[in-house]
Amino acid sequence: MPPPPPAPIAEVRVTDQFSGDRLTIGGIDTSSSWLWQGQGATRPTRLWLPLDLLVGQMGFQRQADVGEEFLDWYGFQRPLSGLQQRTIGDEVALDALPWLNAMGVQVNRAKSTLRVDLPKPHLKKLRQGKGSSANRLVLDLSGPALVQRQGDDLLLQVKVTPLQESQLRRLGLKTRRDRSGLKLLGQSSRLSTLTLKDPWRVVLDGITPAKSSTKQRQSQAFQIALLAPEMQDLIKKGLVLDQRVVQVGVKPIRLYRAGVQHNSSDLLLRPLAPSHAQPGLRYLNQLAQPANALVAVNGGFFNRVRQLPLGAVRLNNEWLSGPILNRGAIGWKRSGPLMFGRLQLIQEMTVVGRRRWPLGMLNSGYVQRGLSRYTRAWGPTYRALSGEEQALILSEGRVDAVYDQASLVRGVPLPLKGDLIVARGGAALPAQIGDEVTINMRSSNPLGELPQVMGGGPLLLQMGRVVLNGRQEGFSPGFLAVSAPRTVVAQDSERIWLLAVKGANGSDPTLIETSLALSQLGLRDALNLDGGGSTTMLIANTTVMTGRGITPRVQNGLGLISDQSKVLAN
Length: 570
Prior knowledge:
mainly beta, 7-stranded mixed β-sheet, 7-stranded antiparallel β-sheet
């Protein structure tokens, strides 16, 4: 996800600023950027941590209430809209210090490593819900605890007794105890968590038995996925699943990849996106399972804080989200080779008897001054995305209604057949109630006319040549230079490839290093998708790779789905 520009920081001198890329959270090592502001090594003035890290490795929750979204941890709650944000590497970060101080978390730094510690509380009692809430489990604790998602597993940093562990197993949960706490195997993306105080509690919703066998749990996730019967059958029919290390200069780069023949009749490439409403994030398996996707990777960029798409997604000839900034994209038909290129939508609104008005964006979380267009593919309701908006509704070529800022903040319904035209940043509405209006739209590249489109960027390879030009696609120099895990869609003369890429020895690749690694594999065309903490590969409903070791939530994905599947999105 391309980050917003850093927010200004007040009352802290630049010389009192330290950063690193390693963390130890409750004794668990992880790779993530952090920024410490203030003197000394134990008491920062501010401590900036990635939002995804707080949610995935500590147990923070994002909660919505009457149109406002809050960040909550054990009852310490703040509205996200009021929190200052900045970028660290390729992540959106918040000052986590108020929460950490409130819970008694200890922090200290040494060189590039930050240590975060919270004493492990005792598990006092287990309580399972009854009736319709039987899938809810309440853990009463003696104090706050860290809740961490590690691949497919959920780690609760609590002290438990053998009897309590037996109780969990009787509920159908597979567990493992070690000095880090209690691990619930296979439950990372199956369980939602809630942290509460007075008394201290962790609430687990959606408890179901883990399905993996003992033999599978003892194998690496990638090997587990390959052993799945459905994957073995597809491998016999030409699906390629492998992992390999490619050397680019002195840097070894590990690539996980899945390849399907262009003319495959067994697996089809499809966007994985929610069809009922675009705002919101989901775990990749929540997008993949309803679509019957046997292989999936995360897709294009999105705004992590607002949870909105930032690029092209077109599913079965319908634009769920339009392209932005002339960024790279792929387009394709039912099967066959992909078309790679840079893409824009050119939209015009013509009011009868008046001049034409350009419409900047379609169903997009990319907010700019001017006019933008939203259809029912955005969802049943539109709510204001900026502080200065007005809008009009078009139905059957005529303006039906006009809305002011207050109405848009509350939310207005989007018509089943029609358009909402939103004016931002002081732009005037170009029509009045009763005016006749026409909208014309065309694509800057023929790939935008194809039934399936997925955007990302930047383009890495075309016709076997490195074509990396981030500035042409609106990416900042800092984004282009960062080292991070990568998600890529590519093709050669025989196959379409979905790839997840990361450093084999801890140092992740830059975009140019990724391009050179793909060239070594003989790939002809390649597009970078969202990377960093969003990078995820799923095979046979098993997470085989994540960018930061944390199972992330994403806005959309790309999947290889069974040709027999009729349900393409949730």
